[in-house]
Amino acid sequence: MGGDYSDNLVLISLTLSTFNNKSHNSCDEKIANRNKKATQRSLFRIELFIYKAMML
């Protein structure tokens, strides 16, 4: 009986740690995607600024 209880705790612990890792990775992915989009917007603005400066 004691072994069954211990096995269940290990299973619950592994399940929770897996869920936490997935949530953490998801947040990291969201931050990375946000930073990538911000970088792309900045590069576009710089290119637009250079283009306008050349047209003057």
Quick recap of the structure?
With 56 residues, the protein is mainly alpha-helical.
Largest sheet: none
Q: Low-confidence segments, ≥5 residues, pLDDT <50?
A: none
Q: What is the strand tally?
A: 0
Shape: rod-shaped
From the N-terminal CA to the C-terminal CA, the straight-line distance is: 83 Å
Verbal overview:
This protein has one domain. Helix content is 96%, strand content 0%. The protein contains one helix and no strands. The radius of gyration is 24 Å and the shape is rod-shaped.
List the helices and strands and how they pair.
Layout (H helix, E strand, L loop, with lengths): L1 H54 L1
Tags for this entry?
56 residues; mainly alpha
